[in-house]
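Example complex used in Figure S2.
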Amino acid sequence: MIKESASGSQEVVQSFRKVLGLLGFRGDFEAGLGARFVASTDNSIYEVLPRAIVYPRDAADLNRIVRAARRQSATQISLTARGGNTGTNGQSLSSGVIVDFSRHMNKIIALDVDALRVTVEPGVVLDQLNRELGRHGLFFPPIVSTASRATIGGMVATDASGKGSRKYGKTSDYIEALNVVLSDGSDFEVLPLPLAEAEELASRTGMVGTIHREALRIVREKADKIAAIFPDMNRGLTGYNLQKAFDATADRLSLAHLLAGSEGTLAITKSITLRVMPKPRSKSLVVLRYDDFDSALRDIPIVGRSDPLAVEILDDKVLGGSNDRYPLGRYRGGPRDPGGAPGQRTHIR
Ligand SMILES: Cc1cc2nc3c(=O)[nH]c(=O)nc-3n(C[C@H](O)[C@H](O)[C@H](O)COP(=O)(O)OP(=O)(O)OC[C@H]3O[C@@H](n4cnc5c(N)ncnc54)[C@H](O)[C@@H]3O)c2cc1C
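Predicted assembly (349 residues):
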């Protein structure tokens, strides 16, 4: 049973809705209990009932949403972005207002095949993007397991990566530009900047000036701490990525690296420009059998020498369960018998 919080007064919500209307909001607004109930869960164990859900129709709607929430600041309307809702930590749940990108803001805006660059709205689902890129022999390399649901906005906000990350890295490795809405409702295009340009922005008044001054102060004053604390990992990330936000050797400030993985806490993303890659012409799979888990783990350094895209370990429970539903022998070209002597290899092309 979900309890309505005391601060969940629908008067505040109706006033927010009215301001949105006055600002020319074109999207959908839902504040009925049914819609809120549906939006109260994600892929985590948590349940939080939001006050309302807004579905922006286009990028301009996002400025309207932030401006309307700002006008209600005395009543503390908070905004939480939501993509495919596949996060496992409750990060797209909120007792405030949910901004859902999946209904309308799911278009591929521009694809430049020669420049290997694509610009998308945040609600584009990864499989949808890769289907379109695939028609041109391209693909977006970070593949999360939830590719049929996860959105590019959610992938940026969690700096997602997946199978193949040891070779292809994370979402942030592919961001060329982010268009975001700041907390005052203004737009900002986030690009990697040579230090001189970042310093010029830092000298300005207004929110963009403050952001650059603070970012430069932190990465400079805390340089030693940042170097000491952040582990050298190609996949994991906890907190804001200060390690990659400033490249001292290249004298380059990259605020996209701070936004990637920031879980929507720093800005709401309106559009994303990504680098994409030519699809590999072929792939092959090697299956190795082991008697026990420990021997498999011990061989990982040896397996790593062949520089595989990914190494997956399936134990007898997973194999047994999947073999019941999808017997390996049914697949043409696949191994007839998953058995055989330990250490035996099966090559599937
Ligand atoms: C079974 C399972 C397997 C998974 N496998 C992987 C995996 O292989 N690799 C991996 O990295 N993750 C994995 N995840 C976690 C999750 O799928 C990813 O983090 C995914 O990228 C989230 O995308 P989403 O669109 O569902 O985002 P949501 O869950 O909707 O939101 C995630 C975060 O992004 C923020 N956000 C969304 N859109 C925007 C926006 N436009 N602007 C600002 N912030 C925004 C939200 O506020 C929230 O903080 C898995 C989850 C499950 C349940």
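Residues 164 and 310 are 5 Å apart (CA to CA). The first strand starts at residue 28 and ends at 30.
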